[in-house]
């Protein structure tokens, strides 16, 4: 399984599934969540309303409607408090659950945003290490390519650095 770090807008990636950094309600929010809902269209919110929310560290899948991807996997990252509220385990669980669900749905190409490092304030370097390690340690079934799509230069530089160090 190939792991790549790219810079860009995840709503433009043509792949089997993109991951949404959602909140517990799954009813839309700001950041990447807002961008995904805007581009997918109102049908996405309609489907999300049937899911009954999502626990922190877990994930749920929907169709992707007007997005170029086939599915959206909505995961809920931890809000970073002080590092002593299971933040690391919960963030790892987000990546793990998304990878498992992508495999269950026979996805070959999965794209992640940088979960929890925006409004949820997870320190970027620590978050990038968890993301890269969890993806590297994952035993894939049919996933061939996992992409981490960074929205800004700084996030991109940190993920690149972590990837280089873990090679
Ligand atoms: P969280 O609440 O999990 O912290 P945010 O959406 O606030 O989620 O931020 C997570 C990351 O997603 C941040 O690095 C933010 O810059 C990035 N981001 C925002 N919009 C997009 C987008 N369209 N594509 C990819 N990443 C995005």
Task: Please trace the helix and strand order, writing H or E for each element.
Answer: EEHHEEHEHEH
Q: Could you say what the CATH architecture is?
A: 3-Layer(aba) Sandwich
Describe the main β-sheet briefly.
Answer: 6 strands, mixed
Mean pLDDT comes to 97
Q: What is the number of domains?
A: 1
The small molecules bound here are:
adenosine-5'-diphosphate
Number of strands: 6
| Sheet/helix structural class | alpha/beta
The CATH superfamily is identified as: Leucine Aminopeptidase, subunit E, domain 1
**Beta-strand content bin:** 15-25%
Which fold name fills CATH's third level, the topology? Leucine Aminopeptidase, subunit E, domain 1
Strand numbers in spatial order across the main sheet: 1-6-5-2-4-3
Helix proportion: 25-40%
CATH class descriptor: Alpha Beta
C-alpha-based Rg, rounded: 14 Å
Which of globular, elongated, flat, extended, rod-shaped describes the shape? globular
* Low-confidence regions: none
Organism: Longibaculum muris
Protein name: O-acetyl-ADP-ribose deacetylase (Regulator of RNase III)
Domain Macro: 1-167
């Amino acid at each position: 399984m190939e792991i790549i770090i790219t810079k860009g807008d995840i709503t433009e990636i043509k792949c089997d599934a993109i991951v949404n950094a959602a909140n517990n309600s799954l009813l839309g929010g700001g950041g990447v969540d807002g961008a995904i809902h805007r581009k997918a269209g109102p049908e996405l919110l309609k489907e999300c309303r049937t899911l009954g929310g999502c626990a922190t560290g877990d994930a749920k899948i929907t169709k992707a409607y007007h997005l170029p991807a086939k599915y959206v996997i909505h995961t809920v990252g931890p809000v970073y408090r002080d590092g002593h509220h299971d933040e690391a385990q919960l963030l790892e669980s987000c990546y793990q659950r998304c990878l498992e669900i992508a495999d269950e749905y026979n996805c070959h190409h999965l794209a992640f945003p940088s979960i929890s490092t925006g409004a949820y304030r997870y320190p970027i370097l620590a978050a990038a290490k968890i993301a890269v390690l969890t993806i590297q340690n994952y035993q894939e079934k049919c996933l061939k390519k996992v992409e981490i799509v960074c929205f800004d230069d700084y996030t991109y530089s940190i993920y690149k650095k972590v990837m280089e160090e873990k090679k």
